[in-house]
Queue: 4 jobs
Job 1
Amino acid sequence: MARDGYKGKLILPVLLTNQRQMNKKTERNPKTSLAATCIDASRAEGIWVVDSSLNDQEAKGNFGSVRFRGVVDFHQELNAMLTHCNISVAGPYWGMNLVVWARGIVSFAAVGVGKAYRYHIPGGLLKQSSTKFALPSLRRLVVRKPILRSWLVGSLQKIAKSDPAYSEFSELVAQFGVLADEDMARHQIGRFYENWIRQLEAAPPQSRSLALYQNFSSAYVLGKSLSNIPSEEGPARSPSRIAEQFMRNCL
């Protein structure tokens, strides 16, 4: 196809496949240099970066202090090398795409159209995932298992009735049976995520990172008052941990 006949914008994809490519500057340098060289050679108008190995809701030990910082640093260092790129995109992830966008480091946050909220390389093997739904007040997803309903009911005893989280958890208890349906659960997540983005977008650009920090801070405080989530595994059982890791990288 002739370049003169194309009316869209050319976006250069940069697909990373291992955390070592982002975590440390000595290993980031050749990747950012190559990306900058490719965007100059292609004359693309924008660049899209995603780490296909990052599932940022796993709550692993190095996420808040190392891995999320690597995502931020990669984009900042790449930006400093680009001379004519007007568009930059990060994601899809669950939260790190919003973090770098809210901080003004990239111009767009990519969001997956499926249910994973992460990037899967085409042709790769996908594990059969469990049905999940969103806990908006905690800014996270949870696996829908029967035992989770009891946790939601028990959490209502720890949340003040005046707290918006109380009505949210009450509704989740009432809708728990409906959320067993994969499509219904996916729509519930999508509605929350859309509202979340629109809320952040409504804030002045210079205030978005603070608004996102406050989102995660509120989620962290609420999560600290609740017991571990029985449907989750490992560090993600902590209701506050995911929000805490994102919160530490918002500002």
Job 2
Amino acid sequence: MIAFTALCTVPAFASDGELSLVAQNFKEPSPQECDYWVMKHRGNTQGQAFGSCVPPVIQVYASLGGASAGGITGAEFACNIGPDAGADPGYFLIEFPNFTATNILGRAFVPPDPSPRGMNISWSDCQTGDGSRVLLETVIVFNTAACGPSAKPPALTFGGAQHASPSNVFFRCPLFTLCDGPVFTKVCLGTNIVDCQTPVPPFPNASKCSTSGGFKLNAPNNEAGTCSNLKGGLAVNTIQSDTWSNVKNLYR
């Protein structure tokens, strides 16, 4: 898996769609969803209701825009976990693809590094989503490292990337398929799309590469990301819990 690449700053509406990785933070009185999470270990939430030693439940959305604004029939992507392809101790992940999908092949977050991974998810009809986004999957994060007043759990980053074995070698990027059957046009996601090497002879720079979306867990110095208020209460497919035990009980 290629290492996670930070997205560059570009004007709005510059992409044909994005992956969005967020976790819901039930801060009162305005619940939010954020692209970062802090597993507080000393009882200080820094104004956020992350909970004591509670890991996140990450929801992965297809955020529609540009060419995909009218809807999608599917997505192909993987997740880069950590800064490289080495093992990332301290966490265990379980993912639950959107059960409404017609076809689901592979997983984007498991198996863990250094194993390759990738998901293809598709629907038989056009998906326009709720608020211009379509739920792709939910990822449950379990911490296996110590966490407490004297034990800070490790940091970890997640980033949307190409499938380990792209279905089309000219699309080495996370992608959506559009609602224009029987063609089902593929569009790369993100704002950092570049020409890159096609992995077949004569190896021309005829493919497209990009990354899209990111999530930070316990970033150094509790580096903040972005949060937005949940409109109309809680978002669709929310998993709400007072304790992490309750979250786990949902899947027993």
Job 3
Amino acid sequence: MTKTDAMEWADQQQQEFMKVYTGYFDSHEWCDSLEGDRADADSHGWYARLSAPGYLDCTEWTGPCKTEEGAINQLYELYGE
């Protein structure tokens, strides 16, 4: 089994400055805190973002996706090289 470009990119990010964070969110509190059109019943699923450890900077959450890999693919589409 080979890794997708997005998963290879995520592994590389983990070894460098930015870290990839993922999580499955299904709580109404989380969904209610989302802005815009994501704050609805379809907000449940996998999300991902990049963060610089030790800094307050991070990207917006991407998602929702049906799988963790799908959320990482969205990150890759936005920030991958």
Job 4
Amino acid sequence: MLDRFRALLGNGLFWQRFWLAWIAVWLANIPFALTIWRESLGYLIFLSVAALILSSAAAFQGSLGMRKTDPEDPL
């Protein structure tokens, strides 16, 4: 189980699809954000938390790239 998880985290194709899916989610939210949720504090809080989580995931992905370029790292 852990080996499959490690392989998934080190898979560039997985990360490409992951980020592409999030781009689609945010693009699909644009009409709602401009109309229905324009004055919603809850939506603003959700966006702030989502930005924090996704930026941390992007930093994690960057660190995986650094590890994969190190020939001595067993990842």
